[in-house]
Amino acid sequence: MAALLLGATADLPAHYKADKPPKNEARLIRFPDVQGHQTLVVDLHTHSVFSDGHVWPKIRVEEALRDGLDALAITEHLEWQPHRADLPHPDRNRAYQQAVAALPDGSDLILIPGSEITREAPADHMNAVFITDANALLRESPNAPKIEAKTPEEEQLLAAVPQQLIDEGVLDYYGATNQWPANEAVREANNQGAFVFWAHPYYTRAHRSAVARMTDFHQTLIETGQLHGIEIANGAFYSEEAHALALQHGLTLLGVSDVHNLIDWDYPPRFGAHRPVTLVFAKERSAAGIRAALFAKRTVVWFKNLLIGREAELKPLLKAVLDVKDAAYRVKDATYQNDLDVLDLTLTNNSDADIQLRNLSPYSFQHHGDDLTVPQHGKLKLSVRTLERLPQVELTFEVGNALLAPKQRLRIAHRLTLAD
Ligand SMILES: [Zn+2]
Ligand SMILES: [Zn+2]
Fold first, then answer.
1. Which domains, and CATH codes, for the chain?
2. With DSSP H G I counted as helix, E B as strand and the rest as coil, what are the percentages for the chain, rounded to 5?
């Protein structure tokens, strides 16, 4: 048997033998730095077995390394502890500590301590990152009443809770720990210097429209400077309404995976999928640099093929992403055998996003209509009919997958100065 196993092992790819992730360049999430800032790829909302996730923190760290993240936060539900019968961990900092312990030697992945404060409506879920002690964000009320359904909807929800979780006291524990007012937990997080954000604001048991709406609870937190960001993309969801709320209330835009299973299952890299992330434009590549950038709202959300941000961040990013090379008038044309007033140029894309452009210039293209796609880390050759030889040409595009606001796309211009 041993010989058979040994024989089989000999044929396995090298990475099966070593305890380190296989190299997969295509999988790395890559965006260029912008002027004055480093572009850091960050996922601030994930789970492990220390709440309702299904993997050990070490796996989260390894996924982050495979995806080429700069920073990761494992943000366990403090109160919702479905594994508590098997993993009763009185110290809520353990997931973070386990992640730190799992960092391979020499790794520069930045681990950010965080927790998910978990309540029912109106507070719902809020994540606090850059905390110093997760335990201080949790308080158990010993004489809390048992959870009871007060409405038919709640009755339905309660009926859906697996009997095993009821038997193991998971529901009672949740009932006892969500009595402590959410605003007090948020205040404690702020006392620790946390950056606090509203998680999946469209997900609430209070209404069924799946539409994010401002509540008095969150409004008060924003007005008192205690709620700083909002998820506009979480997992498979983008919320236009959350996006609008972010702009209306001056909140930092965030995209997160909120992964519970494996990244590879939810976002299979072999199909080119990627987890939603936040691109953070930091003055330095450090936890402090990320924290400062988050408070300064210097983010762009990367969700599926969408880039979502404010103009101050999105415009410099697109400038770094999209470049015009080799712009020159055609001297000899193979087809027509004479000079043409056609400007040839190459658009290059230095990012993971397929950049979708709509031509807003008065010029037409020889080989394309007005809608163009510059593929990720690729090029597009364009032949522009300028009608005459111009010393300067301005090409203006609307970027179909760069959103400034719901239904509002970024416009960019490239001014080209041409030699004779
Ligand atoms: Zn949540
Ligand atoms: Zn979560």
1. 11-139+180-304 (3.20.20.140), 322-417 (2.60.40)
2. 30, 30, 45
